[in-house]
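Tip: read the tokens left to right.
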């Protein structure tokens, strides 16, 4: 599958070096799984983009155009990844102050799926990152382009046996992984950080929470301190590409891989949520 991209609808166009997305991280992005030629959870991704634009004071994204472009690029691929960028566009030389009439830049691009070891869907080992997420309620939940905290956190380890690093808030409670959301099961409660002052409100997390009731689970939105992990029956990580990875250890402390993770994985596979899931034998991976 060839990579492809559209910048403001044009295949040959490039992004200006003065684009505020590049200069200041002044914009939003979405990473969308393509399965069977269709972008998955598209409406949920667009809901988050719309809400992010509202929070940052960006003009409303052109949803019909993005739908057309995203679906056209996906149609040519059985599986893969779509990225959507939506920035405040080229600045007008006034520094940080946003232009009075911004002309946003939109980029829709298609990429190969990353190669991920199949065992990850049977359970992953995680570490606790040293760098913490700062508290910023004005940006919490938004998938903005500023990802330096995640870049620093992901630089902390090279060991491929460690699949993900969990990031803590200033009080020491788990917020999420560097590129995933974190959820845990305790009895009939599905516990996940509230994301009120840090973190990205993941599209796959939203899907998982929406299914909770059907699985007999009650949702609790609250921080989870690492010391509480031994009390958890299960824990897992989610994002739009992987679907879900059960967590089997955090910083060397074991957590069982249990039935709730497996039931969610089976539902994700049934619904073809990502091309990384869904082989009939229950095996997964690219
Ligand atoms: C920091 C961070 N948190 C959470 C997520 C999960 O979001 P989603 O489920 O929308 O892919 C991501 C996805 O890349 C992320 O980068």
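Filled-in amino acids:
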């Amino acid at each position: 599958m060839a990579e492809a991209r559209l910048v403001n609808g044009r295949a040959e166009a490039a992004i200006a070096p003065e684009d505020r997305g590049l200069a200041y991280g002044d914009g939003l992005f979405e990473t969308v799984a393509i399965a069977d030629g269709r972008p998955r959870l598209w409406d949920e991704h667009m809901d988050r983009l719309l809400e992010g634009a509202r929070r940052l004071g960006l003009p409303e994204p052109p949803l019909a155009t993005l739908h057309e472009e995203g679906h056209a690029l996906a149609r040519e691929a059985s599986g893969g990844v779509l990225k959507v960028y939506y920035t405040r566009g080229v600045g007008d030389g006034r520094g940080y102050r946003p232009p009075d009439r911004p002309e946003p830049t939109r980029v829709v691009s298609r990429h190969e799926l990353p190669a991920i070891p199949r065992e990850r869907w049977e359970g992953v080992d995680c570490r606790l990152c040293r760098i913490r997420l700062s508290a910023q309620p004005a940006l919490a939940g938004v998938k903005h382009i500023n990802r330096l905290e995640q870049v620093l956190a992901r630089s902390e380890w090279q060991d491929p046996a460690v699949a993900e690093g969990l990031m803590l808030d200033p009080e020491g409670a788990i917020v999420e992984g560097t590129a995933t959301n974190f959820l845990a099961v305790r009895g009939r409660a599905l516990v996940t950080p509230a994301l009120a002052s840090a973190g990205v409100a993941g599209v796959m997390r939203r899907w998982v929470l929406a299914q909770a009731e059907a699985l007999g689970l009650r949702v609790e939105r609250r921080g989870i301190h690492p010391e509480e992990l031994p009390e958890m029956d299960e824990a897992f990580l989610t994002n739009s590409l992987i679907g879900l990875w059960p967590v089997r250890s955090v910083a060397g402390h074991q957590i069982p891989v249990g039935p709730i993770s497996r039931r969610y994985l089976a539902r994700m596979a049934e619904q073809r949520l990502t091309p990384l899931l869904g082989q009939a034998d229950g095996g997964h991976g690219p």
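DSSP finds six helices and 14 strands in the chain. Helices lie at 20-24, 42-56, 63-75, 148-154, 203-210, 259-270.
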